[in-house]
Specification:
mainly alpha, 6 helices
Length: about 160
């Protein structure tokens, strides 16, 4: 069942990613305004250090976990939101390959993998919770703690550099 959720999460993420790139080609000015409005104005007030990034990501994971156990659709929403954000940012750096591959790619590669696996595991955990399958709940939590949290830590370290 977990493989099904992994494929579903990957599909949701990349469909949103491709939609964001198409949106950006169609309305490039609006894409720039979206990034300037959110990423620059909102996120510029947040200190960029490993601890603040890690804490923000852990808080996001907890919110996704709690909402995802309640309704799997919340996980799909967050997967799509992440894919859309990465698509918009990637579009803005098309042609600036040095920035795209040295700054964005290492961080996005690890975090995207973590997001997809985490989303799939939360969906699986939601299913196991509804079925009251203690063994599967335990396996999902071990995967989240053993794989997703270390990837999140590494991603926060890369993002803060």
């Amino acid at each position: 069942m977990t493989n099904f959720y992994r494929l579903e999460s990957l599909k949701e993420f990349f469909i949103a990613f491709l939609c964001a790139i198409l949106f950006s080609f169609w309305m490039p000015r609006d894409s720039v305004l979206l990034v300037q409005g959110f990423f620059i104005k909102v996120l510029s007030n947040i200190p960029i250090n490993m601890l603040s990034i890690l804490m923000a990501n852990i808080l996001s994971m907890i919110i996704i976990l709690l909402l995802g156990i309640w309704k799997k659709e919340w996980v799909s929403f967050f997967m799509s939101l992440n894919g859309f954000a990465l698509g918009i940012i990637s579009f803005l750096y098309i042609g600036q390959w040095a920035i795209l591959f040295t700054l964005l790619f290492p961080h996005a590669f690890l975090e995207t993998g973590m997001i997809v696996f985490y989303g799939a595991e939360v969906k699986h955990l939601s299913f196991a919770y509804q079925q009251k399958d203690q063994e599967q709940i335990k396996k999902s939590l071990i995967f989240i703690i053993g794989v997703c949290v270390p990837l999140l830590l590494i991603s926060a370290l890369l993002e803060s550099k």
